[in-house]
Amino acid sequence: MAYTVRSVSELASASVRTLHYYDAIGLLQPAQKTKAGYRLYTQRGLERLQQILFFRELGFGLRRINVIVDNPGFDR
Predict the structure, then answer these.
(1) What's the CA gap between 38 and 74, in Å, rounded?
(2) Which H, E and C letters describe 24-52, residue by residue?
(3) Can you tell me the distance from the alpha carbon of 46 to that of 9, in angstroms, rounded to the nearest whole number?
(4) How far, in Å, CA of 44 to CA of 46, rounded?
(5) Any idea what the CATH number is for the domain that residue 7 is in?
(6) Each residue of 15-63: pLDDT tens digit?
(7) Residue 27 within any structural domain of the chain
(8) Quick one: the chain helix, strand, coil %, rounded to 5?
(9) 76 in a domain, yes or no?
């Protein structure tokens, strides 16, 4: 199942602008983009967003979060 930016925004209580920014910096990229430019996320993307928001709540910066969640040894 694919989720639009709007639906992910509502599920995660994160703004659409935040999700666009995460995409721009490579922190949370959509699974695909439609021909019309819509970003679509999968369950895996939602799980990654959950981890990102968890670390943000703990006060980590976005660069540090990117390093943590992209580390091959990272265990959720």
Answers:
(1) 30
(2) HCCCCCCCEECCCCCEEECHHHHHHHHHH
(3) 10
(4) 5
(5) 1.10.1660.10
(6) 999 999 999 999 999 999 999 989 999 999 999 999 999 999 999 999 9
(7) yes
(8) 55, 10, 35
(9) no
Q: Which two tokens stand for residue 32?
A: 């695909």
Contact 28, 49 (CB under 8 A): yes
pLDDT confidence of residue 1? 83
Tokens of 34: 């439609």
C-alpha distances in Å from residue 72, one per residue of 16, 19, 28, 50, 66: 28, 23, 16, 18, 12
Please give the structure tokens belonging to residue 16. 């659409």
Identify whether the C-beta of residue 69 lies closer than 8 Å to the C-beta of residue 34.
no
Indicate the number of domains in the chain: 1
Residue 19 included in any domain: yes
71 CB contacts (<8 Å, ≥6 apart)?
none
Collapsed DSSP state (helix, strand, coil) of residue 3 = strand
